[in-house]
Amino acid sequence: MSDYSTVEKKVSYGIGLQMGQQLASNPFEGVDLDAVGQGIKDIFNGAELAVPHEELDAAFKVISERMAAQKEEQAKVASAEGEAFLAENAKKEGVTVLESGLQYEIINEGSGDKPTAQSTVKTHYHGTLVDGTVFDSSVDRGEPAEFPVSGVIAGWTEALQLMPVGAKYRLYVPHELAYGERGAGAQIAPYAALIFDVELLEIVG
Predict the structure, then answer these.
(1) Three-state secondary-structure class, residue 166
(2) Is residue 101 located within the same domain as residue 145?
(3) Is residue 197 in a domain?
(4) Residue 112 DSSP label
(5) Across residues 34-58, what is the average pLDDT?
(6) What integer pLDDT is reported at residue 125 of this predicted model?
(7) What torsion, rounded to 10 degrees, do the Cα atoms 136, 141, 142, 143 define?
(8) Quick check: is 43 in a domain?
(9) Considering 48, 80, 133, 168, which has the largest number of Cβ atoms within 10 A of its Cβ?
(10) Domain CATH number, residue 90
């Protein structure tokens, strides 16, 4: 095992970790860590490049096109899965389908006032993909979330204005009322339909 007892060694190792994290967050199939290391050494030492710049540019273009095609294919799959799920879900007893495409079912009715688009609200929520994968949850964190009604995804903005304080709804949100073609973070793919359990705790402003 290498000796990392000096400050210089530790910082050098930390730089490697940062570069590794960057590579891991934008992975492509076939990355060669030995070649990565050689590129670092060559540029650091001012050595002649093993691969000329024009070849590097061409290679980056190929990889970029390949990753874009892969992302597009994944988006098509996510879109088809979401549409199939929502079509089947719309047939369930107790599910209301709005003109926008938003679906919801009432878990608790609630009896307080309803917020407007200008309101700020406090909620508890639990968000999952259609396969049940949890991507965000104030319930799991044990801390309610506060935000403007008009400052969230369109599906939430529409649903919150239907909910009296104290209500808990399960929302089934099509991608066009969620994060659309962009997706969000590592877990929410482009064109993904989402499910939220939302409890309206309070209108705070």
Answers:
(1) coil
(2) yes
(3) yes
(4) S
(5) 90
(6) 97
(7) -70
(8) yes
(9) 168
(10) 3.10.50.40
Active site residues: 125, 135-136, 153, 179, 196
pLDDT at 164 over 70: yes
pLDDT tops 90 at residue 151: yes
Compute the chain's Rg from CA coordinates. 24
DSSP 75-95: HHHHHHHHHHHHHHHTTSTT-
C-alpha to C-alpha distance for 89 and 93, rounded to whole angstroms: 9
Residue type, 38: Q
Report the predicted TM-score, pTM, of the whole model to 2 decimal places.
0.70
- End residue of a domain, out of 76, 93, 126: 76
Tell me the mean pLDDT in the region 113-119.
Answer: 95
Domain that holds residue 51: 7-76
Query: Per the structure block, which two tokens stand in for 86?
Result: 């929502």
Is 91 among the domain residues?
A: yes
**Phi, psi (degrees; rounded to nearest 5) at 76:** -65, -40
- Other beta carbons within 10 Å of 194: 24
φ/ψ (deg, to 5) at 63:
-65, -40
Same-domain pairing of 52 and 95: no
* DSSP for 117-160, written as a single string: TT-EEEEEEEEEETTS-EEEEHHHHT--EEEEGGGS-HHHHHHH
Count how many domains the chain has.
2
